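Whiteboard transcription, Tuesday session. T.W. wrote the structure tokens on the left side:
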């Protein structure tokens, strides 16, 4: 092996891991990617069901960004179908109104009621805490507007879905002669000594045996059903304002390139829960308003890590959207090339 070709292990075949793997392989390193699941693409994993409808197994993934570098990088591995996501909220009286709340929506319900109708119950069921106990940046992801814009991501310059799906896009990223992918393989710390460097997307608290206490996560139970009706919802996603445990339903066929079944439609309804109630499936790091969870993460971050770099939502304990996961993984890879010991 030449000095420049090192053995790299990437733990996790999601977007973050795939980007790092590709960057390392293109620098001449030999890369092994492992994932404990039996598929690549992490939580962006999608598949076409028996009705010919593409379903995102871990909830709706809508790609949106204003980061040209990320778009250029991903565009090497996928074509795109332009798509600007729209969401309606279902009110108690059965009306569907535009979300994020815009001028029309707030006039309909009364400005003073907006937080209580659209944010308080949803946040309570989504995060299991009161609105006030959650860092305000979380709900500010869905900003209240005073114009008539109807887009869920009103400001992003690039909004599209990968033409052949996320799974195929990630497969294309991983398709390189110096990348080997091993699925249904669990990580073991002994692998650190067998590799020159490890990029690890596993939960950082679990890696350190929870020595500073567990980092909380929310998870989602997905209820997917197919009904013999061509179309059910007014928009691809409908959010619920009620206090039932469900946050939203997505009708997959309403997304471009997700199937054209004239007789059946497949829908997925989301029921958030603590990750301990969903087979330890960690989806969302919880950003509390007091910053306690972040402080706990910082203690893990400060631990000596040897030849391990943490990546991704669970490794960095950060609510990364897909474009941010790609951007973060690119910076980590490129920064690593500069400071790496080899
Ligand atoms: N939110 C809300 N009501 C809604 C939609 C969002 O209260 O109808 C709040 C809620 O706290 C949610 C956050 O805004 O977790 C971010 O919503 P987003 O749709 O960005 O969440 P994601 O798609 O990442 O689950």
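and on the right, the sequence the group agreed on:
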């Amino acid at each position: 092996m030449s000095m420049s070709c090192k053995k790299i292990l990437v733990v996790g075949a999601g977007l973050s891991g795939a980007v790092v793997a590709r960057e390392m392989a293109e620098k001449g390193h030999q890369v092994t990617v492992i994932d404990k699941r039996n598929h690549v693409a992490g939580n962006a994993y999608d598949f076409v069901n028996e009705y010919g409808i593409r379903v995102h197994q871990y909830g709706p993934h809508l790609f949106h960004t204003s980061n040209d570098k990320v778009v250029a990088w991903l565009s090497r591995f996928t074509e795109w179908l332009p798509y600007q996501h729209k969401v309606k909220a279902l009110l108690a009286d059965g009306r569907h109104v535009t979300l994020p709340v815009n001028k029309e929506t707030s006039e309909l319900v009364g400005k003073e009621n907006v937080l209580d109708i659209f944010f308080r119950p949803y946040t309570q069921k989504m995060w299991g805490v009161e609105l006030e106990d959650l860092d305000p940046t979380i709900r500010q992801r869905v900003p209240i507007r005073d114009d008539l814009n109807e887009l869920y991501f009103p400001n992003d310059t690039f909004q599209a879905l990968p033409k052949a799906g996320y799974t195929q896009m990630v497969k294309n990223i991983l398709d390189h002669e110096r990348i080997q992918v091993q699925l249904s393989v669990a990580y073991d710390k002994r692998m650190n000594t067998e590799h020159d460097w490890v990029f690890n997307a596993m939960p950082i608290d679990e890696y350190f045996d929870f020595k500073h206490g567990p980092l909380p996560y929310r998870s989602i139970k997905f209820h997917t059903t197919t009904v013999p009706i061509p179309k059910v919802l007014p928009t691809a996603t409908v959010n619920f304002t009620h206090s039932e445990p469900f946050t939203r339903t997505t009708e997959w066929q309403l997304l471009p390139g997700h199937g054209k079944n004239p007789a059946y439609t497949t829908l997925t309804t989301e029921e958030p829960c603590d990750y301990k109630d969903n087979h330890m499936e960690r989806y969302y790091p919880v950003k509390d308003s007091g910053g306690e969870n972040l402080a706990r993460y910082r203690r893990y971050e400060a631990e000596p890590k040897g030849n391990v770099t943490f990546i991704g939502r669970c490794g960095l304990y950060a609510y990364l959207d897909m474009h941010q996961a790609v951007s973060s993984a690119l910076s980590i890879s490129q920064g690593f090339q500069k400071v790496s010991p080899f």
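Someone added at the bottom: Residues 89, 99, 118-119, 122-123, 126, 138-139, 141-142, 239 surround uridine-5'-diphosphate (CB under 6 Å).
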